[in-house]
Amino acid sequence: TALSHIRNFSIVAHIDHGKSTLADRLIQMTNTVAERDMKEQMLDAMDIERERGITIKANTVRIDYTALNGESYVLNLIDTPGHVDFAYEVSRSMRAVEGSLLVVDSTQGVEAQTLANVYQAIDADHEIVPVLNKIDLPASDCDRVAEQIEDVIGIDASGAIRVSAKTGQGITETLEAIVHQLPAPQGDRNAALKAMLVDSWYDPYLGVVVLVRIMDGVLKKGDQIRMMQTGARYGVDRIGVFRPAMTTVDELGPGEIGFITASIKQVRDTKVGDTITHDKKQTDKPLPGFKPSVPVVFCGLFPVDSAEFEDLRDAIEKLALNDASFSYEMESSAALGFGFRCGFLGLLHLEVIRDRIEREYDIELITTAPSVVYHVFMKDGEMIELHNPADMPDLSKVDHVEEPRIKATILVPDDYLGDVLKLCQDRRGIQQELTYAGSRPLVVYDLPLNEVVFDFYDRLKSVTKGYASFDYQMIGYRQDNLVKMSVLVNDEPVDALSMMVHRDRAEMRGRAMCEKLKDLIPRHMFKIPIQAAIGGKVIARETLSALRKDVTAKCYGGDATRKRKLLEKQKAGKKKMRQFGKVEIPQEAFISALKMD
Ligand code: GTP
What we know:
A hairpin with a 5-residue loop joins β10 and β11. The strands form 7 sheets. Strands 11-10-16-7-8-15-12-13 form an 8-stranded antiparallel sheet, with no helix packed on it. A 6-stranded mixed sheet has the order 2-3-1-4-5-6, sandwiched between helices. By secondary structure, it is of the alpha+beta class. GO terms for molecular function: hydrolase activity; translation elongation factor activity.
């Protein structure tokens, strides 16, 4: 296809503003997929994504569109993930396209992720077409939202397209805007091959699939290619495009987006952002490249049944093949036995991986408290990256500890502003900005990541009844008074429950933890002390009293069925328990104990 007839774009939007629905409609109205094959949310491939309504991996589709001027165009849509955990994936896929549709729900207006994502598009020098969605709803207020886009984002929204992705209204206008308002890609067909490695993943049938955007030159089947950063060389086996099903083509030329396979063994062998060129005729101008995405949240994953350790290893290895941003290493815990310390981009990423292990591999897991990476500076000058609070060195050897901080942007209706400020303050936040985005307060806080990692987002949703929107970015490390708090159950330390806390909040956190555990651990035949300690010093304590009566006593002895049922229920409950010394701790305790309300 001639460059002048290609348009490459992405869609940026806040969660639920209708990005996937719009993409589906664009695909459907251009007959890219036969009507009978059309599923809701075509682009969300995995079940989990579908269930949770979130898009995780960048997905791509090539749409053939005959415009009203009679000319045929090729439109390549790269779908980007909408969740904060995957901000990095958004930024890299944006570099592969020239323009964006900025979708804003016209009943809601600009939200935190609208801002975060549109700034990424602006950074990538995109031409931006504003689209006001959901105009079929009575609450739609396009004039207000267009004005808000101009005020807050500073782009012209007077020509914003008014769309209902649901009814299909405005879709032709959107397609026309893509053709006439977005720039055509540039590139030189006769130059040496220069292609961007946009993404890669593992396909059970094809092996590693690499998504590429051709900048210059032409890529053909059988070509010998070289990845310029890693120096690896491969022969191209297959070349194709997504319609959205994988369809092979003979070649990809400048401006085009498609996939290749090349008997690459694992996803880890491909570096996102790398430049692909021909081995014989190399480009002398590789792309600037990307910094790799680094895991920021770590937790331990242990099988509930220790006999399943090998199965867990297998599952984790397989998942890691397909997800280079997920890291793992073996870990052994006195209390939990063998497991893995895993690193994730954020909490959602953690939940997705954990769910997949439990569901697809049928392994029940104990997940230990998520922790961020601390920088521990030793008195001898060494710096240790601490991924697991249990590994915190002896305090006498530690000079100081630094923790990662984030810049959080929160948009919230006026009514809930007070609650949000209090929440941020409670989480050791430092206010940076309090301005207005249109009529709504826009709050910017500098917060410690570890205070956000666990349940900040849930708390924010609950104190604002779901009306707040939130986005964050890492800003760096800063020193603070941080200590390790250990938890002892029946005088045995439970390393999986130890956590890093700020010294000033240690007592409060310790008390909350002990109270929670007291509720979560079932009573035993003996009294169980539950303590929180820093170093050797106990800072909080609760006692779980002994069980006095037999559990079946309340069945009045007579009803045998009921008695059996009760015992069975207990047995089922037991499956999810772990033995610590003489005490059994239920699986959910590890997560619940750390939630602060
Ligand atoms: P993520 O993939 O989670 O980022 O969300 P999204 O932005 O892709 O939103 P999605 O397309 O899943 O739409 C969110 C909800 O809004 C769904 O329930 C859609 O059915 C609904 N929706 C999308 N577009 C319209 C529209 O034009 N009108 C109405 N009434 N509902 C819409």
